[in-house]
Amino acid sequence: MLEVHPLHKRLHGAGEFFLHLVAITIGLLIATQIESCVEWRAHRHIAAEAREALHKEIASNLKTLRDAEPGLKQWKAQVSDGIAVMLRIIDHPDDPAAQHGSLSVGCSGLTLDNTAWKTAQSTGALDYMPYEEASAYQAQERLGAAENLPCADAAAAFGILSQYHLDAKAPKFSREDATAIANKLGEMKFHLGFGSAIFDENIELNAAFVEGRKPRENLGGSFD
């Protein structure tokens, strides 16, 4: 805190007054610069600590994403296989071979960390940092929202399947129910493709930050 003390003696003449005023002004400027320098160094230290924590967190999230790639690919393949099974039932509802197809309907999600990001926000460290980190965490939020869509599709498909005794050796699906399930699986396939695009975006943004480079533009996902 800056302090200005009153004079301890009486000034004589305008020259002495202005000289004293100049001295006070210079003193205040020096004190202000010292205080600003101290604050700048403190903010720089906070930003450096936050950036290190963010780097570790984003690197960890990148590993989580890459580890999940095979599972996402398998999930999409299972949905496509399920659609094919339902289409065979729709075309041949009385064919035992068509009724004995394999159907796998499930839902899963990722858990990506954002503790360091929230801490940087609460401490104000983001005000003294570049914007690269924000892109990675914004993409993370989009991925979290996209994960809800195929899960809703899975819940709807399970609602239709719940009327069948799936532990029986030969549950017979009607053409109508097979059509309804195929529609839900079709929606799931689209939502998984949409989520895959955001998934790929997350990998690229996290990798670019960790590797210290600019992310590629026009990222595309697979709707296969």
Class derived from helix and strand content: mainly alpha
Assembly type of the chains comes to single chain
Helix content estimate? over 70%
Largest sheet: none
Number of domains: 1
Structure annotation, total helices: 5
Give the termini distance in whole angstroms: 64 Å
- Sheet-strand content, in percent, reads under 5%
Extended strand count: 0
Our Rg estimate from Cα atoms comes to 31 Å
Q: Poorly predicted ranges (pLDDT <50, ≥5 residues)?
A: none
Spatial shape: rod-shaped
Please give a structural write-up.
The chain is mostly helical. The protein has one domain (13-211). 71% of the residues lie in helices and 0% in strands. It contains five helices and no strands. The protein has helices at residues 13-91, 96-99, 115-123, 132-161, 175-211. The longest helix has 79 residues, at 13-91. The chain is rod-shaped and about 105 Å long.
In short:
The protein has 224 residues and is an all-alpha fold.
Q: How are the SSEs ordered, and which strands pair?
A:
Layout: H1 13-91, H2 96-99, H3 115-123, H4 132-161, H5 175-211
Helix pairs in contact: 1-3, 1-5, 4-5
Which characteristics define this entry?
71% helix
